[in-house]
Amino acid sequence: MKIGDKVSVVDEDLSGTITSVKGNIVVFKDEYGFTYQYPKEKLVPKDADLYENIRVVKKAEPKKVVSKKHQKNHMVLDLHFHHMVKNPSDYDSFERLFIQKAKLIEVLDFCRKHNLKRLEIVHGIGDGTLQRMVMDVLESQSDIDFYNKEILHHQSGAVMIEFH
């Protein structure tokens, strides 16, 4: 450090130009004309050229690993009968409802076993028989919250379930 060099004080918002150096003590003047004395170890050179030649290395952001259990997408169970069996016309209405109920209970158990948080049940809009069966099953379950996807529940063909 020599007279005329610009310096900044470590840990303080103070800088200026060196006016004299006496051993380990450096005297400098700030931009307002005030004089300060600091030991050399408390000062650093204020030189923009020091920083201009430093290469900035931009690192790629690490990807956040999200387990399959905690993905935002929820599971969807479609209870429309033609999606569940090959020949829907081979079954009478009681058998259809029984198979749909068994599938619903099976999927609810699967969700609990695999700690899934949300399940959407698509029952469609019809005469309301399937919708009533779904509601009866859900009301008999513990540790779940459920609500219709639409504001007008009689126009909704789906129910969203959240597991606790």
UniProtKB/TrEMBL annotation:
<protein>
    <submittedName>
        <fullName>Smr domain-containing protein</fullName>
    </submittedName>
</protein>
<feature type="domain" description="Smr">
    <location>
        <begin position="105"/>
        <end position="164"/>
    </location>
</feature>
<dbReference type="InterPro" id="IPR002625">
    <property type="entry name" value="Smr_dom"/>
</dbReference>
<dbReference type="InterPro" id="IPR036063">
    <property type="entry name" value="Smr_dom_sf"/>
</dbReference>
<dbReference type="Pfam" id="PF01713">
    <property type="entry name" value="Smr"/>
</dbReference>
